């Protein structure tokens, strides 16, 4: 079941023209959100923020804006069936909404942490870093490689070897009572969960710094986690860099500061 161009379609195939730019070039923009309590108005759902992300990208690309009421209608049709929605917009303004379920082991991953692999190769770098486009091949390749090696996530780096983000979310690090996240200036995706957490931490008078994550600096962190709008916060229990590895205590008390945001 999915929503496409104003219609709810109950099948697992979509019909696109052979000349569709979204098919040929990955020319789409998208955003993925978790719908809390089946409500687009719930503060953690961040519906308006996700729509703003789409609008900002579409305007920058000089593409056609969708029918926002139609997009909302499609989301509401799928909410009773799926807790996670992926909103995709084509260059001509057509909307495509797919639903999916939360990972079955999400609670265990949040509690026990996961293992990650540093994808230290230019092959895995993302293009148009400030936008979520259909051309997501770099992070997808990194994630596939990590999983083939027995890891759950991949960490992307730039040409200088500085850490940027995971293949599916934004990075967070903690040391000496302060939180850190990579700077937007380094070319990372300005995640919606990331911006909301920065604002919330600041309101709670918890220090948060946007900084450059060099390899030597990363080794000083007491805990590293990643966030996105679906999984909330997942800590890393181990991160492997070639023959080296970093091991973390996923019961670190600092993580509760981030988790408190999702208890709104």
Tell me about this structure:
The chain is α+β, with helices and mostly antiparallel strands and 264 residues long. The protein folds into two domains: 2-100, 2-Layer Sandwich (D-amino Acid Aminotransferase, Chain A, domain 1); 106-263, D-amino Acid Aminotransferase, Chain A, domain 2 (Alpha-Beta Barrel), CATH 3.20.10. The chain is built from eight helices and 14 strands. It has helices spanning 21-24, 47-60, 68-78, 106-112, 137-148, 192-203, 215-218, 255-259, and strands spanning 2-4, 7-9, 29-34, 84-89, 95-100, 114-119, 153-157, 163-166, 170-175, 178-182, 208-211, 223-228, 232-241, 244-247. The strands form two sheets. Strands 6, 7, 8, 9, 10, 11, 12, 13 and 14 form a nine-stranded mixed sheet that branches. Strands 2-1-5-4-3 form a five-stranded antiparallel sheet, with helices on one face. 34% of the residues are buried.
């Amino acid at each position: 079941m999915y929503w496409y161009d104003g219609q709810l379609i109950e099948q697992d195939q979509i019909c696109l023209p052979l000349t569709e730019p979204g098919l040929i070039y990955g020319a789409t923009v998208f955003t993925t959100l978790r719908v809390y309590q089946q409500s687009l108005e719930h503060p953690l759902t961040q519906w308006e923020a996700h729509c703003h992300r789409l609008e900002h990208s579409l305007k920058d690309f000089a593409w056609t804006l969708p029918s926002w009421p139609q997009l909302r209608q499609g989301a509401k049709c799928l909410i009773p069936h799926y807790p996670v929605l992926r909103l995709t917009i084509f260059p001509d303004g057509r909307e495509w909404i797919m639903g999916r379920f939360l990972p079955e082991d999400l609670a265990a991953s949040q509690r026990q942490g996961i293992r990650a692999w540093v994808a230290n190769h230019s092959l895995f770098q993302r293009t148009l870093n400030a936008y979520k486009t259909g051309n997501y091949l770099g992070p997808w390749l990194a994630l596939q490689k990590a999983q083939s090696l027995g890891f759950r996530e991949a960490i992307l780096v730039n040409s200088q070897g500085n850490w940027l983000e995971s293949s599916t979310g934004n990075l967070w690090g903690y040391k000496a009572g302060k939180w850190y996240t990579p700077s937007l200036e380094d070319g990372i995706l300005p995640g919606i969960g990331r911006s909301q957490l920065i604002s919330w931490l600041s309101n709670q008078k918890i220090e948060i710094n946007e900084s450059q994550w060099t390899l030597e600096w990363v080794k000083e962190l007491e805990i590293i986690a990643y966030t996105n709008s679906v999984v909330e916060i997942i800590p890393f229990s181990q991160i492997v860099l070639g023959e080296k590895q970093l091991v973390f205590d996923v019961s670190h008390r600092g993580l509760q500061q981030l988790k408190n945001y999702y208890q709104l």
